[in-house]
Automatic annotation (TrEMBL), chains A, B:
It is found in: Cytoplasm. The lineage of its organism: Bacteria, Bacillati, Actinomycetota, Actinomycetes, Micrococcales. This is Histidine--tRNA ligase. Residues 1-355 form the Aminoacyl-transfer RNA synthetases class-II family profile domain. It comes from the Bacteria. InterPro entries: aa-tRNA-synth_II, aa-tRNA-synth_II/BPL/LPL, Anticodon-bd, Anticodon-bd_dom_sf, His-tRNA-ligase, HisRS-like_core, HisRS/HisZ. The gene is hisS. Its EC number is 6.1.1.21. Pfam families: HGTP_anticodon, tRNA-synt_His. L-histidine binds at residues 92-94, 122, 136, 140, 286, 290-291. Keywords: Aminoacyl-tRNA synthetase, ATP-binding, Cytoplasm, Ligase, Nucleotide-binding, Protein biosynthesis.
Length: 454, 454
């Protein structure tokens, strides 16, 4: 991370960093699969029509066109930022997933549990925590027509477990519920619930006094209504005691009751199964307007200013096909944002920069094929082994292995009788012992590079 | 594969197909890592200047531009297909790798062994075997200044092993050597060796007579020279006996000798270690002009018309930085091309469409949390488990599991004394037995979806 990207906003990792990233992605994949989520990948491009269905993000989109098309009849079209058939790179994995579900509905079984780990692209101004190309890891559960609320609990449990298995230290999943907030505002007599949410979303940035002023001046709230909305947003509990705190505010509404019950369901179960991982935080608004119930965001403890590293929510109609709708709930991890922070704060590192566990030194150039035999014995038992490409001085060969953190160097010498004797050296301790390529095995922790939490 | 892509040339797999693809990618990764190759990924975009360094492929490139830029000062530039700073999607992994090596040379140890598995994009006309978005899996070894010839043998061995581990049936790696061919042509008195190669490359398409005619009319070869060039291209042996066959043609040249020795080195070692996997095929030319020694291509036996599924070669200067050059040798598997053929010919399939091994049925909606306890016991021991989202009739829950190929359904009933009894049903055999969530384990082959070769 001391290196500067040669193209601003497009990060590339060195081999040792990539090992940490692979560990993170493997861990996520394993957790998702243990919970029965299926992997899918969607194409990198969508039509502008698909991407801009929700309206708001056109400035961030990368359009794609065949270079050849520029110079012929495609020229006009290549410039038309309104053409809905024009292709562009996806900026998240939710919109492509919605299209995939609609297109393949006849081939899927619902509720459909899928995970998707892919790169996405946004033409934003690069800054700390933001990249133009980055990897997301999403899970969603989508139903056909209906989806029980229980899935809202399920996906949060899966993500708490997945994030808990990563070398990222402590985190907090902050959970709220749109129904709770909207019901409360309506119970208060504030009908422009989206407007209230939009202002509450500014709390961290502009403070309570300014939000109160805006609620009164922009939305016509009374001072008391504004105070009540702010009191709601101030509630934050690790267990379900938020329910009593909300009730104490004296507002009643049917939707509020529904929201309280749902949020208590999610937070209660998380509190029981993953204590300390989640809080009910009634200030969480989440910008995107298609969420209809539970909303989640996640901060790394001690790195709150990084923003959310895992967000999502419930949407009652992510996708629809004729009069068939597909409600869903999901969460998305910003893997690249996490990696950037992990590297810049030195939170984790790989025990070596290559997969190789054993480096087979060459005594003579002619021994290469015999050395490959040794390597083959080791690989057949799952031990990554690499043969030197030329018979340089042993000191140089050991240095080559040491530089990459390869723990073992293997030496073979052929006696006058043609019999080979083998020795293996642990270059960390210097210890060198006789070894048989068909049976010698390193300790399990030396087999593959380990990712060490600092 | 009976489904049509919603965007021509951009294929997306169903969950069960994706399991087969994941198996292929995992197998490749494992083989590459056992041989000490490091993973890297490069950004999806390169500058046009980088991409078009070799000249020939501009028509196939997808240019990328921020949608916003279209409507302001970027408009002119977004249209300029000559602007070397303009961004475009990479069309292979070799050009980006070369840039990566030059940029990060100070952070890498040479010879640098890397593998890279990523999507690439080409704006070609889609047809059988060709897609506009496809996954490539590359290995390369790159040296700093020099790279021993031995690496040419090494990468071919790794690929023979990697392809041999895939459910794709028989394949043949066809190997030739540029030095051999060029030395032979020079020894014959034909100096335009690139011209001869270009015509020999057309052999399969237009036949020997027509190639002979072109060699004479275009390159001024005599009938005898043309016959000799064609005689060379007709040589094909599984072992090193091609050397004698070439010598029997009576042509001598220093470069020819070097080429013969190198090709014998590769083919001899492959014949010894992976018998039947490789042939010396002296008709192989490979279009790209930067190869300088060994060239490889690979066909699936019985699917030769699909074209090469794994190609590459030796390049003496893939990349350079000032007067420092980085010679390399590598091979690239066309994973998507392989997947398309595997699916269209029904060569392999997943044993089920989801990772889930055990589906936990619900007797009452209130049991959900208790069912999660059971699931957690199973997952902790690496058994993928999924809990039903609602307590529907058992028949319906079993049908849901069966439809996805989940082998086991788990039932829990709580007695009047509050004690739970557990049973697990193998829905293939119908057998149902008592089971303890803390100890019950399915056979290893039921743990994760298996990929079965048809």
């Amino acid at each position: 991370m001391s290196r500067k990207a040669s193209l601003s906003g497009f990060h590339e990792w060195l081999p040792a960093e990539r090992i940490v990233e692979q560990h993170v992605l493997d861990t996520l994949r394993n957790t998702f699969e243990l919970h029965g989520f299926s992997s899918i990948e969607t194409r990198a491009v969508e039509t502008l029509g698909q991407l801009l269905r929700k309206g708001e993000i056109d400035k961030e989109v990368y359009a794609v066109s065949r270079l050849q098309a520029d110079t012929d009849q495609g020229a006009a079209r290549a410039q038309d930022s309104q053409d809905p058939n024009r292709l562009a790179l996806h900026f998240d994995l939710t919109v492509p997933f919605a299209r995939y579900v609609v297109e393949n509905a006849g081939h899927l079984s619902f509720p459909f549990r899928r995970y998707q780990i892919q790169k996405v692209w946004r033409g934003e101004r690069p800054q700390e925590g933001r990249a133009r190309e980055f990897t997301q890891a999403d899970i969603d559960v989508v139903g056909d027509g209906t989806l029980p609320f229980r899935s809202d609990v399920d996906v949060a449990l899966v993500m708490a477990e997945a994030l808990g298995a990563l070398p990222i230290g402590d985190f907090t999943i902050r959970i709220n519920n749109r129904k709770l907030a909207e019901g409360f505002y309506r119970g208060l007599g504030l009908e422009d619930t989206a407007g209230v949410l939009r202002n509450i979303d500014k709390l961290e940035k502009i403070g309570a006094d300014e939000v109160s002023r805006l609620l009164q001046s922009e939305l016509g709230a009374t001072e008391d209504q504004a105070a009540q909305a702010l009191a709601l947003a101030a509630i934050r509990t690790e267990d379900t005691s938020f329910v009593e705190q909300v009730r104490a505010l004296g507002v009643t509404h049917e939707l509020l009751e529904e929201g309280l019950e749902e949020l208590a369901g999610v937070v209660g179960e998380l509190h029981r199964r993953a204590p300390g991982r989640a809080v009910a935080d009634l200030s969480i608004a989440r910008g995107l307007d298609y969420y209809t119930g539970t909303v989640y965001e996640t901060v790394l403890v001690g790195h709150e200013q990084l923003g959310s590293i895992c967000s999502g929510g419930r949407y009652d109609a992510l996708a629809s096909k004729g009069n068939r709708t597909f409600p869903g709930v999901g969460l998305s991890i910003g893997v690249t944002r996490l990696m950037m922070r992990m590297f810049s704060q030195d939170m984790a590192r790989a025990s070596r920069s290559v997969p190789t566990a054993v480096y087979i030194a060459l005594t003579h150039d002619d021994d290469w094929s015999a050395a490959q035999d040794t390597a083959q014995f080791l690989r057949a038992r799952g031990i990554p082994a690499e043969v030197a490409v030329s018979a340089e001085k042993f000191g140089k060969q050991i240095k080559y292995a040491d530089k990459r953190g390869i723990p073992y160097v293997w030496f073979t010498s052929v006696g006058e009788d043609g019999a080979a004797t083998h020795q293996v050296k642990d270059i960390r301790s210097g210890e060198q012992v006789d070894a048989d390529p068909a049976t010698w095995t390193p300790p399990a922790e030396d087999l593959r590079p380990q990712v060490l939490e600092n």
